[in-house]
Amino acid sequence: MSAPKSLWRTVRTVVREPTWPTSVPRPPVERRTGVDFDTDWSRRYGVRLARAVVLDGVTRPLLHAVASPDIRGLDRIEQLHGPAVFAANHASHVDTPLLLASLPPRFRHRAAVGAGADYFFDKRWKGALWAFAINAVPIERNRPSPRSVRLAGSLIADGWSLLIFPEGSRSPDGWGQPHHPGPAYLAARAGVPLVPVHLEGTRRILGKGANRVRPGRTTITFGAPLYPETDEDARALAARLEAALAVLADEQSSDWWSARKRAAAGTTPALTGPAAPAWRRAWALPNGPRRRSPSTARPWPHLSDWRT
User: Which of 29, 59, 198, 242 is deepest in the core (most CB within 10 A)?
Assistant: First the structure.
């Protein structure tokens, strides 16, 4: 038995991993996932053309049948033609394609989606899939990394708009979550308008943790663009964005005039909901158990007109 053991020790000595000399600097490790995933190829003409065909020929008709979107507030961005940062609340994986499909054509095919680098780009095949399907670019969720900021800045400089969810992840219970200042920081740094967008109804279609799609009705409400003020930091602009989204949510659940009166009085309902147990928060939702009725249900499919 001693001979095989001796032979094995010799083999391990010969084939073991070589050491690196301490006096020689190591080259940087090339990463191809996460925030380092390369998405430049997804904005080449051929890929853009293929994505536009899928978005207009497949995604929009499918969302038309599943989500029956009611798009409001397009008049508020009618005079907006340059790049912008669109920031929306986030409750479902349906949010991203629905928001993309709801944008006017001048933005729809010139928009990139800021997606969590740790979730959408943790594997190369996933990164390639989302980069093609929705023109996703990797963004750090908690705070903008230098690479993310440079990428977003270069996209805006090239005339691309950005779609970002300030909450960073989907709502677990239907109520809003605290906002990260990333979208406000990018808008202020690039000097472009920040457009609040409120999405209603997507959680009922495919909420976090759901295992199947339930067709329903959705409402997409665009707000007036917010412009960074002189010497305004990202957190102050992010606070204005959160307040604007709360007013849009109030407008969607009531009407424009009532929402504006509550906003002027400082009584707009908070997006984050009451500080209460989970069952009480669920009950207090605008479309919670107490407010549901059979009239809100809709059979599959619904073929109402799609608004462009």
Answer: 198
**What's the pTM value of the predicted model, to 2 decimals?**
0.81
**DSSP H stretches of helix in 16-59:** 45-54
Give pLDDT, residue 231: 83
In the chain, what are the domain boundaries?
30-276
How far apart CA 48 and CA 112 sit, in angstroms, is: 11
DSSP 1-25: -HHHHHHHHHHHHHHSPPPPPTTSP
Q: Other C-beta atoms within 10 Å of 255: how many?
A: 11
User: What are 278-300's pLDDT values in tens digits?
Assistant: 656 666 666 654 444 333 444 44
- Please tell me the distance from the alpha carbon of residue 296 to that of residue 173, in angstroms, as a whole number: 19
In this structure, what token pair is assigned to residue 179?
């906002």
- Other CB atoms within 10 A of residue 43 CB: 17
Q: Note the CATH number of domain 30-276.
A: 3.40.1130.10
User: Rounded to whole angstroms, what are the CA distances from 193 to 55, 87, 138, 160, 222?
Assistant: 25, 11, 21, 13, 13
Q: Which residues of the chain are modeled with pLDDT < 50?
A: 289-308
